[in-house]
Amino acid sequence: MESLSPLERALHAARALVLADLVAGDVAEADVVSLVEDSVSQRRWWVEQWPDGAHYVAGLVAQDVQDALLERYGRWPLCPVCGSGDPHALDVEPELGPDPHWVCHKAGVKVAAVGGLGRATGGMASS
């Protein structure tokens, strides 16, 4: 079996991390998974143009999927930290950097690494 290039490893890892968060939020329906695939496809071109950006692709795919979900379905992922007030989505930080995390700006806390929402929410849906 041929080994994967660093580009393909980064893209596969990004896909897996975002899918894990979608599963944790119980929103990994076929049409939502297609949004992940669309983002990965677009980010493949982006990373081919800027190979040093491979370290940033997981956060970018998470943001792409979050934006696409907002347009079609509403906010995702909802903050599991704030128990009162209006429901609000988590943000990815850094916007362009390695080691992306889901952050609640309202509470000022890191909630989970991208791919780790299941541990942060106890595996419960984030609806």
Question: What key phrases describe this protein's structure?
Answer:
mainly alpha; 3-stranded antiparallel beta sheet; globular; 4 helices; 3 strands
Task: Give the gist of this structure.
The protein has one domain.
Question: What does this protein look like?
Answer:
The chain is mainly alpha-helical and 127 residues long. It has one domain. Helix content is 46%, strand content 9%. Strands 1-2-3 form a three-stranded antiparallel sheet. The mean pLDDT is 91.
Q: Could you give the topology of this structure?
A:
Layout: H1 6-24, H2 30-49, H3 57-72, E1 91-93, E2 101-104, E3 109-113, H4 117-120
Antiparallel strand pairs: 1-2, 2-3
**Order of strands across the main sheet:** 1-2-3
Silhouette: globular
Helix share, percent: 40-55%
Number of strands: 3
The total of helices stands at: 4
Biggest beta sheet summary: 3 strands, antiparallel
Name the helix and strand elements from N-terminus to C-terminus, one letter apiece. Answer: HHHEEEH
Low-confidence stretches: none
> What oligomerization state is this entry in?
single chain
Total domains: 1
- Helix/strand-derived class? mainly alpha
Average pLDDT metric: 91
Radius of gyration: 14 Å
Q: Note the beta-strand portion.
A: 5-15%
